[in-house]
Write a structure and sequence with these properties.
mainly beta, 7-stranded mixed sheet, 4-stranded antiparallel sheet, 11 strands
């Protein structure tokens, strides 16, 4: 059974930084794509970033490009989201997700494309 466990959320002032972690277990992810999504109160879940596990190729939402960096550590089976230059509008619950079998030619930005989800971690950015 695939399990994803997020950590690293918290309260930070605008302009600050946080690093989220997503520890994955239950199988190998060499053919997978993993992603970060976020959901603010009263809003739909939105795509943040995705990474191909085998190639480490990445793709970002325009709203976070240049501020956030997605990465993964193969030895630890863990994905990260380094968030710099945080803004109040980044406040949300952040979720990691995995799509078990991913095409090398596609980036997956729809939540429905992912098979498993973590429980979420709250990020709050104060102004």
């Amino acid at each position: 059974q695939v399990q994803l466990v997020e950590s690293g959320g918290g309260l930070v002032q605008a302009g600050g930084s946080l690093r989220l972690s997503c520890a994955a277990s239950g199988r190998t992810f060499v053919s997978s794509a993993m992603g970060w999504f976020r959901q603010a109160p009263g809003k739909e879940r939105e795509f943040v970033a995705t990474i191909k596990w085998s190639s480490s190729s990445t793709y970002y939402a325009d709203s976070v490009k240049g501020r956030f960096t997605i990465s993964r550590d193969d030895a630890k089976n863990t994905m990260y989201l380094q968030m710099n230059g945080l803004k109040p509008e980044d406040t949300a619950v952040y979720y990691c997700a995995v799509r078990l079998v991913a095409s090398s030619n596609l980036y997956y930005t729809a939540a429905t494309s992912y098979n498993y989800w973590g429980q979420g971690t709250q990020v709050t950015v104060s102004s």
